[in-house]
Design a protein that fits this description.
This protein is mostly helical and 270 residues long. The chain is 76% helix and 0% strand. The chain has 14 helices and no strands.
Length: 270
């Protein structure tokens, strides 16, 4: 299968799993036994990641996603999803060793997906499912370019990486070296030249914009949103958010409970 075909198949998987997660969240509270099953499978999946047992991880991963699709109760969805899953098996095998050196990130992605489903928040669950699949493909592109020596646009590569890794620790030096394939000084210059912001200021703004989006479009608790966008300290998150939007996270959500976006959140910063 060509890289372009893999990309399109990965997009199909993203769409199908996003749909499944959305409907699973809708049915979660009425299906406590199935929800508990998800948690049991998740615990097993995390154990396999800790010991880097790929065969066992694949079994648990398949079981978890099938359980989500069963919970979604969408006719014929499982058969369509299985075709996409089977087509990506070889890619997944390579990805486990090559594209996820830090298994903690992979564990956190699955935990977040199950948490949003358990919360009964369809929008948050769909966002979690699709972000997870799309982040996998981003890692593929990064590895591929690194192995072939291709550089392309270092700023664009860095921005794409930040967008899918907001929940991870991110440093200018490592992003420049491992993602943008340029010097920290040059990458810093590119951010200031194109966006009028330092690398760190751009990253903080990106995190807060994503937090605002999640506050308005989901029911995820503030503390969990803070963690999702890379803040381990909730009070620090609140300070930065209020400085950016003129309101606390809770106050911001209360002011616009029915909205899925706002002019300030919708500003294009990329």
């Amino acid at each position: 299968m060509t890289p372009d075909e893999l990309r399109r198949l990965s997009e199909l998987r993203s769409l199908l799993e996003g749909l499944a997660a959305r409907h699973a969240a809708h049915h979660a509270k009425a299906s406590p036994r199935r929800l508990e099953q998800l948690r049991v499978i998740l615990a097993q999946l995390i154990r396999t990641l800790r010991v880097r047992d790929y065969p066992a991880f694949r079994e648990a991963d398949l079981e978890l996603h099938e359980a989500i699709i069963d919970l979604a109760q969408v006719p014929t969805l499982k058969s369509s999803w299985r075709l996409a899953w089977q087509g990506l098996l070889d890619f997944h095998a390579q990805g486990f060793e090559d594209y996820f050196p830090d298994s903690r990130v992979l564990a956190e992605e699955h935990e977040h997906l199950v948490e949003t489903i358990a919360l009964g928040d369809p929008a948050a669950a769909e966002d979690a499912a699709r972000t997870h699949v799309e982040a996998v493909w981003l890692r593929v592109a990064e590895k591929s370019d690194a192995s072939t020596g291709q550089n392309h646009d270092p700023l664009r590569r860095a921005i794409a990486h930040l967008a899918f890794r907001l929940h991870c620790p991110l440093k200018l030096t490592s992003v420049a070296r491992d993602v943008a394939f340029t010097s920290p000084g040059n990458l810093s210059r590119l951010f200031r030249q194109n966006h009028g912001l330092s690398f760190q200021a751009y990253l903080q703004r990106l995190r807060l914009e994503k937090a605002a989006e999640l506050l308005l479009s989901t029911r995820i608790p503030v503390a969990r949103i803070a963690k999702r966008v890379g803040y381990r300290d909730v009070s620090r998150f609140g300070q930065h958010f209020k400085r950016r939007f003129g309101n606390t996270p809770a106050g911001f959500r209360a002011c616009c409970p029915a909205k899925t976006g706002s002019p300030s959140v919708g500003k294009a910063i990329l």
